[in-house]
Amino acid sequence: MIPSLESVLAQTYARPDVARRDIIKALENYKTLSWKYDRFVFNDGRFKDLVNLEGTIPISYKGNPYNIPICIWLMDTHPNNAPMCFVKPTPDMQIKVSMYVDHNGKIYLPYLHDWNPASSELCGLILVMICAFGEHPPVFSKPRTADVQPPYPTQPQHSAFMPMPGAGGNYPPYPSMIPHQPMPLGVTGSNATNFSLPYSTENNPPYPTFPSTLTTPQTPSSNSSTITEEHIRASLLTAVQDKLMQKLNEYFGQSRAELDILEQTSVELNQG
Predict the structure, then answer these.
(1) Looking at the DSSP assignment, which residues form a beta bridge with residue 57?
(2) Distance of alpha carbon 92 from alpha carbon 100, whole angstroms
(3) Percent of the chain at pLDDT above 70?
(4) Is there a domain that residue 103 lies in?
């Protein structure tokens, strides 16, 4: 018998009622996610059975819609501690390393770094992921190793992998692989368990083509020795955070305008 979410949370979590409200709200807003109770393995070899949300989240990159496979692990102290989040590509996909994602797929965001138990929640976290991945898509297709490939990835009978464009049918190809960008400094990956995720079967446009070479920041000359790598890193992080805040403000501004219209319509209907 599969245990219910309530029984799992009551057995494992310090604040089951708060965790349940946060999980249910996220599942109601993002129908492509589902909850699962599974074993999480920490970097030091310890493990613990925890609840995770897995599935895909929608992003828009240059006007085209894509679905990004993710997994969000809730610590048993939720919401006192931030979740552990990962991108979960299928066998035909590869992680695009950036300031947001390391080579193991672990996600790093300002929202996670500044997690506040009183105000942070899963819906807000997912929204920040959507904005960040809309600027920097975290996955791309692996290069082909054979001229002939099946229309879908080979998959075991007990798992549901994402159907991938680029191997036949009416799907356009994914971009070719590019060299990795450097990992964020001072972070390590996770030994979290691997599992497959469902993926949208609709005709998505091709993933964006990544450049074949990466732009390297110019090394400051001897006449500008006061500009250090720390200054450059701080400037980049500030620019990214400003961009995220702009996206969030646009999103919430649009939602506020829609709510105002609905409230005005309700008032007019009540007044006859």
Answers:
(1) 68
(2) 21
(3) 66
(4) yes
Looking at the DSSP assignment, which residues form a beta bridge with residue 101?
A: 107
pLDDT tens per residue, range 234-245: 777 777 777 777
Domain boundary among 82, 117, 141: 141
Q: Which value, in Å, is the radius of gyration of the alpha carbons in the chain?
A: 21
Distance of CA 50 to the CA centre of its chain: 19
If we measure between CA atoms, which residue out of 43, 249, 27 comes closest to residue 123? Answer: 27
Say if 161 falls within a structural domain. no
- Split into its structural domains, the chain has a count of 2
Provide CB contacts within 8 A for 196, sequence distance 6+.
88, 90, 155, 159, 160, 161, 162
Interaxial angle between packed helices 229-270 and 122-135, expressed in degrees from 0 to 180 and rounded to the nearest 10 = 120
pTM reported for the whole predicted model? 0.57
Q: Give the DSSP per-residue string, 25-94.
A: HHHHH-TTEEEEEEEEE-TTS-EEEEEEEEEEEEEEETTEEEEEEEEEEPPTTTTSSPPEEEE---TTEE
Task: Mark whether 112 and 9 lie in a shared domain.
Answer: yes
Comparing C-alpha atoms, which of 82, 84, 136, 87 is closest to residue 114?
82
Specify the amino acid at residue 44.
D
DSSP per position, 13-43: -SSHHHHHHHHHHHHHH-TTEEEEEEEEE-T
**254-271 burial: b if 16+ Cβ within 10 Å, else e:** eeeeeeeeeeeeeeeeee
226 domain residue, yes or no: no
Asked whether residue 245 is domain-assigned, the answer is yes
- Which DSSP letter does residue 158 get? T
pLDDT value of residue 206: 53
Whether 122 contacts 26, CB under 8 Å: yes
Q: Which domain holds residue 251?
A: 232-271
